[in-house]
Design brief:
This protein has 551 residues and is α/β, with parallel strands linked by helices. The protein contains 14 helices and 20 strands.
């Protein structure tokens, strides 16, 4: 073979013409998987070939192979697991393989299984960096000669910059997709934040109304009433509690409100309470559907967790209700508890319709529901938020037609739960109450005076500041959102006058939402409305006792 030309099976082909055609082919597509087909067309004019393959390492391991094989009109793309060719060398070399079927290289064995037993493989290198491997293949047991290496190596040389460009293009495309996904998530998050802020504003006003009703109801019972009237007051208080639960759900919509004070809870006891609470639902479901809904509990090792009882009950009630909804024709629900390496685990399994893989990936997202118009799409989202705030997690395993299993994990309590503060008599302590809502302020004044505190109430924060300057007080309780002077401003002025004065703030806003953007160093604690009178009095007693000890 004379230098400067390539001999093919039909005659002499100028080397420059061959390279030009290869360069045009390489630059004619942005799809790297299409290259083997285009290369096969051009290279088969120079060499007797039955296939061409291009393969490269994938980040997750193994190789991706794009190949033209006998009997296929299109490029076959296949992931091949295993080590494949040794590309760890600093200077990878071309090599011949007379029998791909018996090769130790998984990629070549895969090619051999597709009736391409003979191969000549050359590295595709740019700037001493190995990018891929190019293999030319034959179906007949005819070995490649040494002189046939030159045109294949020249193709690999032209292919190098193109493959490098393809790789860069793929990275740019991937980055663009990631950026678009991040942008969509940001837009969605901002929309949810705005909706949450609006919801919190409405919740604030409702909390003030509920707070007044709750305070007056508690006060009536403390003052002593007839049994018949007490039953009516209990019904009012229960309605208020239900309203508080609804408002709390609205506040959770912002995903910014954290849990209240945690108490120790027995996991098995928690499950038993929830099963008793939900019993009417699954028993009535059984009678309506005409098929049994059987619920059983398999308690494991008793575990104590720290949590907000009402929130964790809400999670479990939601899981039980969802399981019942998944059994329109009856079936079994099994609740199990156990302890695993510092985690309390509760699983709720059903033999219902199951969840598709696509639905499972979105099941904890807000507004996603598989129940149609009968579902809000917030239950599992809220439950997930509650568990995250408790330091836990929730996972789901499901197969369509084979039921679902939701698994809740909570950290096991590492120390004994703190005992709640006990309410003690007022002992004549003097308290200043400030709230522009006259009804709430008067109710609070009366509830504190009943247990012996001396209370002065003012609906005007500026007037309250003058009262504080003229009279000695042991504690101040103030609303935060007031016209003319906010509770924050009032607290700052009081602290300037008496840095050791304990101050309790009350608000209808979510407590953690307030703390995120406001000064709280002047306050001993913040109480969210509506509140239980007994719980408020216990906090007052605890603060006064601590203040007396320090004094």
């Amino acid at each position: 073979m004379s230098e400067g030309s390539i001999r093919d099976h039909r005659g002499l082909v100028p080397e420059s013409s061959f390279i030009e055609r290869i360069a045009r082919v390489v630059s004619s597509t942005l799809e790297i998987e299409e290259l083997p087909r285009l290369l096969f067309v051009e290279m088969s004019r120079v060499l007797p070939l039955d296939g061409v393959a291009l393969f490269w390492r994938e980040p997750g391991g193994g190789f991706l192979v794009a190949a033209v094989t006998p009997g296929s009109s299109s490029v076959v793309v296949q992931h091949v697991s295993g080590g494949a060719v040794d590309d760890a060398d600093e200077k990878p070399q071309a090599f011949l393989c007379p029998d791909n079927r018996s090769s130790s290289q998984p990629v070549l064995r895969w090619l051999g299984e597709r009736d391409l037993p003979v191969s000549l493989t050359v590295p595709v290198v740019v700037a001493q960096q190995l990018l891929a491997w190019l293999s030319v293949l034959r179906a007949a047991p005819t070995a490649f000669s040494a002189r046939e290496l030159r045109p294949v190596a020249q193709v690999a040389l032209v292919l190098g910059p193109a493959v490098n460009s393809f790789r860069l293009y793929e990275r740019i495309e991937a980055a663009h997709k990631d950026l678009a996904a991040a942008r969509d998530e940001l837009v969605r998050s901002e929309r949810l934040v705005v909706q949450g802020e609006l919801a919190s504003g409405a919740a604030h006003d409702i909390n003030n109304i509920l707070g007044l009703i709750a305070a007056r109801a508690d006060l009536l019972k403390l003052q002593g009433i007839s049994l018949q009237a007490e039953a009516s007051v209990d019904a009012i208080r229960k309605a208020v509690d239900d309203g508080i639960t609804v408002v709390r759900r609205v506040n959770q919509f912002t995903r910014r409100q954290r849990s209240r004070e945690l108490v120790g809870l027995d996991v098995n006891r928690l499950v038993e309470e929830v099963l008793e609470m939900t019993r009417p639902r699954w028993q009535s479901s059984q009678s309506k559907k005409g098929a049994a809904v059987r619920v059983s509990f398999k308690p494991g090792r008793a575990s104590m967790v720290m949590g907000v009882p009402s929130e964790l009950r809400e999670v479990m009630v939601n899981l039980i209700m969802n399981a019942v909804d998944a059994l329109p024709c009856g079936g079994d629900i099994l609740v199990e508890s156990r302890q695993e390496e510092g985690w309390a685990v509760i699983s709720v399994s059903d033999t219902g319709c199951g969840i598709t893989e696509e639905a499972r990936q979105h099941i904890f997202e807000p507004f996603f529901t598989t129940k149609g118009e009968s579902g809000s799409g917030l239950g599992l989202w809220v439950s997930h938020g509650i568990l995250v705030r408790h330091g836990g997690d929730i996972q789901v395993h499901s197969e369509p037609g084979r039921g679902s299993c939701f698994t809740v994990k909570l950290p096991v309590a590492t120390s004994a739960p703190a005992q709640p503060a006990q309410e003690v008599p007022g002992k004549g302590h003097s308290i200043l109450v400030v709230d522009d809502e006259v009804g709430l302020g008067e109710a609070l004044r009366l509830s504190l005076e009943i247990v012996g505190y001396k209370v002065v109430f003012s609906a005007d924060p500026r007037a309250a500041l003058n009262i504080f300057k003229a009279k000695a007080f042991d504690l101040v309780i103030t609303d935060l959102r007031m016209p003319g002077m906010t509770g924050w401003e009032l607290a700052a002025e009081i602290k300037r006058l008496n840095p050791r004065m304990p101050i309790i703030a009350m608000t209808g806003w979510p407590v953690d939402l307030i703390r995120d953007g406001q000064r709280s160093s002047d306050l001993a604690t913040i109480i969210q409305k509506p509140y239980r009178v007994n719980e408020l009095r216990a906090k007052v007693a605890k603060l006064l006792e601590a203040s007396h000890v320090k004094g």
